[in-house]
Amino acid sequence: MAASSDTMSPPRTSLSSNKPQRSAILSWLGVAPFLLFALLFLILPTAMLMVGAFQDAQGNFTLGNIIRLFEPNILSAYRISLEISAASAALGTALGLLLALAAIRGGLPGWIRPTLTTFSGVASNFAGIPLAFAFLSTLGRMGLVTMLLRKYLDFDLYGSGFTILSFAGLTLTYLYFQIPLMVLIIAPAVEGLKDEWREACESLGGSPLAYWRHIALPVLWPSLVGAALLLFANAFGAVATAYALTGSSLNIVTILLYAQIHGDVLHDQNLGYALALGMVLITGSANAGYIWLRKRSHRESA
């Protein structure tokens, strides 16, 4: 009996089975530039400063740099940096939330929201020397607002005790990019507040205060705390704005770190590595908290 043609034909090779492999290879090629960038500018520098923090100038192992972090001058720098970061994060969170609520759920004209979003995207990345120059030109001793207050309201801003080269001045400067960043972060969470929740609360006799206390704020709380942590880390790691604005007049850890690595008088590179390691631990903890709270808010809103 002749063999069937089906049994005699060779097996076919499916080309579709290679498509997932090709797709995976293309995906890895697409993400390769980001991985290379992270390796060169984040992972390797962090590893280098972690090693350098435990070395002396000759490359020998030592705990002296870590011990020196507890010196009064360095502890004071960390304390001032933590206070400025916490103040700008708290004010940025509150004011950014109010702006987002007004633009998204406040019944304002439709052009307000895209305009605010566009401005927030630009302002949240406006920092460093240009931002410091802008605030010096506006609120400096001879700044525009300072002169206008003196001329038309007979109010001496600097005579009242304010100076841009102070805790309050630096905190106010940080708010320029903290508030827009908060708007961008919290906007999706504000959009997630459903009108049905308010209507249900009102139908049951609840007041607007009861709605915010028992419904809206509990829903927004993980996003608010996570955003505050991100703003805290953002302010704590800022160096260019603080250095250009205050120079050495304000003892914060980023300026002290810059002086240890690039300065002529306080030059101690390994102590600078230890200072940077402390900053990495603080900002890393804040970012880890933000990521955890963000995942939690996504699970609750799903």
Automatic annotation (TrEMBL):
GO terms under biological process: transmembrane transport
Entry keyword set: Cell membrane, Membrane, Transmembrane, Transmembrane helix, Transport
A cellular component term, taken from the record's GO annotations: plasma membrane
Cellular localization per UniProt: Cell membrane
InterPro entries in the cross-refs: MetI-like (IPR000515), MetI-like_sf (IPR035906)
Top-level taxon: Bacteria
Membrane topology qualifier: Multi-pass membrane protein
Segments traversing the membrane: 25-44, 84-104, 116-136, 157-190, 210-233, 240-261, 273-293
Domain ABC transmembrane type-1 per the UniProt entry, residue ranges: 78-292
Listed PANTHER family: INNER MEMBRANE ABC TRANSPORTER PERMEASE PROTEIN YDCU-RELATED (PTHR42929:SF1), INNER MEMBRANE ABC TRANSPORTER PERMEASE PROTEIN YDCU-RELATED-RELATED (PTHR42929)
Family, as annotated: Belongs to the binding-protein-dependent transport system permease family. CysTW subfamily.
Entry protein name: Acriflavin resistance protein
